[in-house]
Amino acid sequence: MSLPVRRPGRALALLRARTRATETSSDPLWPMRLAGDLRELGADWRESAALCADAAWTARATGSSVLVLLHPGQVTVADPDPVTARAYRHLYLSALRYDLRCATLQSLAAPLLERDRQSLDCYSRALYAFSLLGQSHPEGLAVMDEVLDEAGDHAKTLHVLLHGLWLGLDLDQGAQRLLALSTRPPFDSGTDPIVAFRRAGALRRLGRYDASLAAIDRALDLLPPGDTAVHADLVRERSLTATARDLHHHFLIPGGTPT
């Protein structure tokens, strides 16, 4: 049995496509160019997800959201080229995820799943699971389990599921599921600040405040310098956990008076 042969320079070509998309996010044509680059490379769903998620995040941060540059029809229409269709889908649904527009994401992804359940890629199904989990719909857990069977150690897909579990409320064993997922490869190295951030939220929900504070402090240490938006989220999480811990200790003091 022969192993698949990777084309020379493929990693560099993918890096160039990613750089081109993120560095030209002020150009309204960048989504079309990125889709063209992915089509030319014959990108698989993993490569498309990685590039499109990063590009959608950067565009959002720079005020050039994909949601302004594309329209829902480009996500739902059947494109003759599957790589292009998948790229637009990954870009638009990722942008909805970053904006926490769960209901809109669900409304676009659900018909795709019904129409192309067998062929819809794993990352798109993860985004659909996110839309359900983020609205605390229990059926999202079943979709998540299906995705996990296929996702392997694809970090972008697992981050989508972690995000949904973190956002959702009153999901059956939601916090415990998040903690279990956060130790799955490739997160088992413990070096991802966003994973540590998600873990902190789950630990807080479980009343494990000291462990939550330790997780958020680790996330702060791991976060690259200059990421002010995420840093602010981490600081808010730390403040919330510290307040919850203080309230918990206050009500445990005999004779304490709530204030």
Describe this structure in words.
Helix content is 70%, strand content 0%. The model is unreliable at 1-5 (pLDDT under 50). The termini are far apart. With 259 residues, it is mostly helical. Helix 12 (193-205) packs parallel to helix 14 (228-252). The protein is built from 14 helices and no strands.
Secondary-structure blueprint of this entry?
Elements: H1 10-23, H2 30-41, H3 45-61, H4 66-69, H5 73-76, H6 82-98, H7 102-115, H8 122-134, H9 139-151, H10 155-167, H11 174-181, H12 193-205, H13 209-222, H14 228-252
Helix pairs in contact: 1-2, 1-3, 2-6, 3-6, 6-8, 7-8, 8-9, 8-10, 10-11, 10-12, 11-12, 12-13, 12-14, 13-14
Q: Major β-sheet, in short?
A: none
Distance N to C terminus: 71 Å
Instruction: Tell me the β content.
Output: under 5%
Query: Radius of gyration over alpha carbons?
Result: 20 Å
Helix content: 55-70%
Stretches where pLDDT falls below 50 for ≥5 residues? Answer: 1-5
Count helical runs: 14
Quantity of strands, as a count: 0
Oligomer: single chain
SSE-based structural type: mainly alpha
Précis, in short:
The chain has 259 residues and is mainly α. 70% of the residues lie in helices and 0% in strands. It contains 14 helices and no strands.
